[in-house]
Structures are given as C-alpha cells and as structure tokens.
Amino acid sequence: MAYVLGQILDVQVFNRLRQRSAWWVAPAAAMFLGNISDTLAFFFIAFYKSSDPFMAANWVEIALVDYSFKVLICLVFFLPMYGVLLNMLLKRLAERQPANRFQLS
C-alpha cells in the first residue's frame, strides 16, 4: 500500500512538472515527494504502536535515515543517469526528424 501510494504520487508529480524548462525539476521533485510518502506511510503502518518497544519509539528516526539513503542514491545515480539517457534520446530524435520529414512528403 505504501509503495503504491509513493509510485502514484511520483508519477503525478513527474507528469505535472515534466514540461518545465529545466530537465531535472520533474524527476527530482517526483523523487523527493514520492519517496517521502512511501517511506513515512510504510514505517507508520509497520511500526507505529508496534509491540517492539524500540521500533515503536524510534520509527520516525529510522524512517528519516531510510529516506536519506533513498534520496542520496537517487541524486548520485538515478538523476544523472536520467539526464544522460534523456540527452541521448533527444539527440537521436533530432537526427531522425529531418529524415522522417522527407520520407513523408
């Protein structure tokens, strides 16, 4: 349930922001909001008022550490890879567009 909530929010945010001029705004905002909702929902459902006293007392701190690692991984690996792949795709589409225009005429 938490994962689905995070994914739906991620897609909605990305879809609304993807037409911005800066390519990184949509994936970054989607990542921040999707991951925080996923993480907080999961830890709240799993550990709020848990029978394990340690988890019941510390679930918020553990969730924030988990979220921090998710953000770090996304910023270091996924966001740059998205930029590289987007750039490659746009270059290929730009190269093919003039050829397609002549074939259709």
From TrEMBL:
Record bears the keyword Oxidoreductase: no
Keyword Amino-acid biosynthesis belongs to the record: no
Keywords per UniProt: Membrane, Transmembrane, Transmembrane helix
InterPro entries: YhhQ
Highest taxon of source: Bacteria
Membrane-spanning parts: 21-47, 67-90
Pfam families: Vut_1
Cited NCBIfam families: queuosine precursor transporter (TIGR00697)
Protein name in UniProt: Queuosine precursor transporter
Organism whose genome encodes this protein: Serratia fonticola
Lineage: Bacteria, Pseudomonadati, Pseudomonadota, Gammaproteobacteria, Enterobacterales
Gene of this entry: yhhQ
